[in-house]
Amino acid sequence: MQLLTPEQMGQADQMAAASGIDSHRLMMKAGEAVSAAVLRRFPAAVRMVVLCGPGNNGGDGYIAAKALFEAGCNVSIYHFGDLANLKGDVAQAFNACPVKPQPLAAYAPKANDVVVDALFGAGLTRSLDPAVQSLILNLRKAGSNVVAVDLPSGISGGTGAALGTAVTASHTITFMRPKPGHFLLPGREHCGTLETFDIGIPQRILTSVAGNTYLNEPSLWKAHLPATSIQSHKFKRGHLTVFSGGHGTTGAARLSATAGLKAGAGLVTLATPSNACTEATAHLTAIMLREINNVRELSHWLEDKRLSAFVLGPGFGIGEKARDYTNLLAGNPVVLDADGITSFAESPDRLFYSLSKHPTTFVLTPHEGEFARLFPDIHSDKSLGKLEKARAAASRSNAVVLYKGADTVITAPDGRAAINANAPPWLATAGSGDVLSGIIGSLLAQEMPPFEAACAGAWLHGAAGQNAGEGLSAEDLPNGLPKYSQIS
Ligand SMILES: NC(=O)C1=CN([C@@H]2O[C@H](COP(=O)(O)OP(=O)(O)OC[C@H]3O[C@@H](n4cnc5c(N)ncnc54)[C@H](O)[C@@H]3O)[C@@H](O)[C@H]2O)[C@@H](O)CC1
Ligand SMILES: Nc1ncnc2c1ncn2[C@@H]1O[C@H](COP(=O)(O)OP(=O)(O)O)[C@@H](O)[C@H]1O
Ligand SMILES: [K+]
Fold first, then answer.
1. Which is the CATH superfamily of the domain at 6-210?
2. What's the average model confidence in pLDDT over 396-419?
3. How far apart are CA 286 and CA 159, in angstroms?
4. Do 462 and 419 contact (CB within 8 A), yes or no?
5. CATH 3.40.1190.20 occupies which residues in the chain?
6. Ligand 1 pocket check for 128: Cβ under 6 Å
7. Cα–ligand 1 centroid distance for 118 (angstroms)
8. Beta strand segments in 409-476, E
9. Given CB 3.0 to 4.6 Å as the disulfide criterion, which of 229, 242, 271, 445 pairs with 308?
């Protein structure tokens, strides 16, 4: 599913008008869709309260109020801003509305009210007025049900950031295409259940304005998923190498390797320093073991051209050895995670220089702390949302960047970006990231391109979390992976 920024949506709106589509008709459809959703969700509501702002979002509100009124509901409208300043479609919607609005300050929220939030949508550019913010706090205190039009007021459609206090809705009705702010945090938590309604802007216009930001769904990468064929043999399904730390620190790499095998790699080898071989052997069966202690031994191992992908970082240890291995692996499909990333904290440019000499084959999987170590200036830039930060990081590093969190974002150096939204909160458990690196490594080993492998990996990890259920530990995740043939 392609996502549109508020700016792109505005552009689509203008193009629709320029091509002769009646903009008031679009507003009518939007407002009527809101009214229908409210009636469907709250058929027994005692009082409907529509809060209308000064722009087109407010216009949708006046249309919704009219439709609710005509459906026999008890409707009140409260407005923000000077009614004398209403223009164009909003003024027309206001004039046609049989319910006369009162000023916002007169509204005292009640628990049973069903509130339609049509204060601000895509046009929000700055923090809400203090009076609006205090009303939002009162709504929250009263526990009123809120249905947001397009976006909960106070949430940025582009970044999901809350510009001051923002409305928390149980439902949000948006139009044509969701925006990144519906899925990025904290926006996602403010939206409740999201419905996307088609108000009739033609597909050709949406396609012409859309960039390359997507919700991370199987349609984005399913065609690249490894297919199992009767003629397959284990080398055809790829050989993944996971580098392990030394004695006492092999757990993370073993988790990653186990996930790699379960995610379909034909062969998985744990590359282990000599002092950890006994420990690793005691825990492994299907996963193979190879002693690798230094760059010379790694170079020798890399002469086997059937090795298809590598995971470096989980439990590996921070330092020169990680940097040397990474440099040697540049140009190969690699997931660089955890200690592999942190090893470049003092000298990120050394990593970027190494990666700049090859096509994109690396996937970097930082959580926020690791992201800040590798990209300190991008991380601290308050003008950027998570999507833009991850895009800037991918462009700088020439790697696919999977910026982890409850709203994981995956970006490629060519600008493609996907927001992952299927991860349950109980994935926040020790070792969960190690499993993710193994899944992505496995998909790389099975010849998935790096952006698609990272997107599929994040989604499969989320699905595994859902299947394993609340209370899971990271060991449960590989067994929760869905079967590829059943993904639709
Ligand atoms: N995109 C489309 O195709 C359609 C959009 N529609 C609606 O139009 C909305 C966007 O309309 P607008 O662009 O008029 O924007 P809004 O209605 O979200 O904002 C209105 C105005 O408020 C001002 N403003 C921004 N932040 C403010 C703040 N914190 N305090 C006070 N004023 C502030 C802005 O200058 C803007 O002109 C969408 O969210 C949607 O609800 C619908 O009417 C149907 C068609
Ligand atoms: N609240 C959350 N909801 C959903 N997923 C989460 C949440 N917090 C973390 N995750 C996911 O869990 C994984 C944790 O990885 P990481 O931070 O590397 O932990 P670890 O190093 O313990 O494995 C990441 O994939 C991340 O996206
Ligand atoms: K709104």
1. YjeF N-terminal domain (3.40.50.10260)
2. 98
3. 44
4. no
5. 218-486
6. yes
7. 9
8. 409-411, 417-419
9. 445
With CA atoms as reference, report the closest residue to 71 among 95, 50, 90, 94: 50
Asked whether 485 lines ligand 1 (CB < 6 A), one says: no
C-alpha distances (whole Å) from 29 to each of 26, 48, 169 are: 5, 19, 21
Our CA angle for 152, 155, 159, nearest 5°, is: 135
34 ligand 1 Cβ < 6 A: no
**442: helix, strand or coil:** helix
Report the 10 Å Cβ neighbour count for 475.
15
Q: Ligand 1 centre from 418 Cα, in Å?
A: 25
CATH no. for 218-486: 3.40.1190.20
Instruction: Determine whether the annotation assigns residue 434 to a binding site.
Output: yes
Q: Are 80 and 104 in contact (CB under 8 A)?
A: yes
Domain with CATH 3.40.50.10260 in the chain: 6-210
Whether the pLDDT of residue 348 is over 70: the answer is yes
Torsion on CA atoms 469, 471, 473, 474, rounded to nearest 10:
40
Long-range CB contact pairs, 11-16, < 8 A, 24+:
11/209, 12/176, 12/201, 12/205, 12/206, 12/209, 13/201, 15/205, 15/208, 15/209, 16/201, 16/202, 16/205
Q: What is the pTM of this model?
A: 0.96
Q: How far is the CA of 248 from the centre of ligand 3 (A)?
A: 53
Cα(122) to centroid(ligand 3), Å: 8
From edge to edge, which strands make up the β-sheet containing 75-79? 102-103, 75-79, 48-52, 114-118, 145-149, 171-175, 193-197
Distance CA 353, CA 112 (A): 60
pLDDT in tens, 34-79: 999 999 999 999 999 999 999 999 999 999 999 999 999 999 999 9
Please report the ipTM that was assigned to this predicted complex: 0.95
53 CB within 6 A, ligand 1 = yes
Assess whether the C-beta atom of 32 lies below 6 angstroms from ligand 1.
no
pLDDT of residue 282: 87
Residue 419 in contact with residue 398, Cβ under 8 Å?
Answer: no
